[in-house]
Amino acid sequence: MASSKMTLAFALLSGLLPLFPSAFGAVTCEELPKDLCAFAVSSESKRCLLESVHRGGGRTEYQCRTSEVEVEWRMRDWVETDECVWACGVSRDATGISSDALLEPEFVGKLCSAACYRNCPNIVDLYFNLAAGEGVFLPDLCAVHKVNPRRAMAELLSSGAAFGGAAAAAPTSY
């Protein structure tokens, strides 16, 4: 009886391992399935990215690759949860991530929501850096968006100087 319970437990654990590769501290982007690739970070603290590869006959296949973008060591071996993907309004099917999403009030609302901003540091870090590349300080964008989403978009479309620049090293709690 005990051996059958152990066999069942082992079978369940083995079935769940592909869903949580970070549980054992060894995320290799190239080994991740496409539906876990986007918003994952490898064991070497490099972001994983989903690439489309065009094959003959008009077929497109997707492969997970290791990017050259490094993140803080505390986020290594990270596979983003479905809850964070949903809360932040991102898609695991993303083959390219752009700061253009920061122009969409609905997206900024989800990104700046407490459910995302306080619980999903990997996604917030990614968009923090994208915003910084545009001269926008994400916490300031979130603060303005909370008060007046249209004003936030107008200021983002301007020089970005209204947000005080991107001098901070990491996002703060919103």
Automatic annotation (TrEMBL):
<protein>
    <recommendedName>
        <fullName>PAR1 protein</fullName>
    </recommendedName>
</protein>
<feature type="signal peptide">
    <location>
        <begin position="1"/>
        <end position="25"/>
    </location>
</feature>
<keyword id="KW-0732">Signal</keyword>
<dbReference type="Pfam" id="PF06521">
    <property type="entry name" value="PAR1"/>
</dbReference>
<dbReference type="InterPro" id="IPR009489">
    <property type="entry name" value="PAR1"/>
</dbReference>
